[in-house]
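Example record used in the benchmark description.
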Amino acid sequence: MADEILGQFTQKIAKGQPDCKGEKFKIGIIGTGWVSESYVIAIQGMDDIEITAGADIIPGKADEFFKRFGVEGARVYTDHESLIDNETLDAVFVCTYNTTHAECTIYALEHGLNVLLEKPMSVTTEEAEAIIRAEKKSGKLLTIGFQPRMDENMQMIKKIVESGELGKVYYIQTGGGRRRGIPNSTFIEKKTAGIGAMGDIGCYSLDMVLNAVGYPKPLTVSGYKSTYFGKNPKYNNPEDAARFDVEDFAAAFIRLEGDIVIDFRISWAMHLDTPGDTVILGTEGALRIPSTECWNGSVGGSMILYKDVAGSQVSAEIPLCYKEEGVESNLFYRKIRSFVDAVKYRLPAPVPTSQIYYNQAIIDGIVRSAEQGCEIELSLSDFL
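Model output (structure tokens):
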């Protein structure tokens, strides 16, 4: 019987991508920090895409970046406005630090460009709403950079929930983190990052489970956040500890429409290897999703499906899904490919803002709830 249950979820992998011919798709990269490296490496495997320009506020950084990766002929700028005003582009990738996501994205949309915006969508709910208003007014395509969505194992979670095998989902435990994994650079200051561990890796774990259950509207949040490790030179570089002012740990209890609750926790540093596996409880079954040491775009091992069958309690192991070899197995490749194809063939955004708006509202709600010391209601726009 367990084999029969497991057989429902046998993966079917779509081979290859559309063979796009003709004029090259012209891209500008805004922000040439480390995350942009993954974009450039992925694009080097696509013959129909050309990086024609880049911008970074640090003089010389974009030029050095393109030289390092062998991107010839790309023009460089020190601000996103100059790049957008002076280039003929099909789209831009916004890879700047979090507090400038809204500014850069809105400007690009207002100037008629499609946008792939790196996660998190923004820092605040209000910024997310402003981005969506600009998106709707522009008529251009905007997608948010959640490449774990492209992983077969992540997609399997959604398939299992949608199959009905779990019945009605009522409780989710999720999160993750690192025993030691505090980043540096612009990640650890409010003036650039705005948020810490939640914006870096927490948004991924929220998306994993919210996407699986259809992204119901969040209603209330009771949140907590702390900085015990980031500010302590015992656990962080002394210079970084002195400027650290975002959360290195956060936890929350989140109520969603449909009588679903999420027990969430995320960490950059703690005295524990993991705060726990992801667990999805339903009226007809449950699913355990092993955690990973660090959010790497997949799951930590074989998932376990728990059921009652013919009066017996059974469990079925769901092995890790097969992964293709070569460049097309790269999640950044899939993220970019799905965005470009959506623009070319007028398809829906691969990761729509209407969903990530809820993701961002939860994160912003955790921040506000933690600061107020009480549960708060989320007042979300109905314009979506």
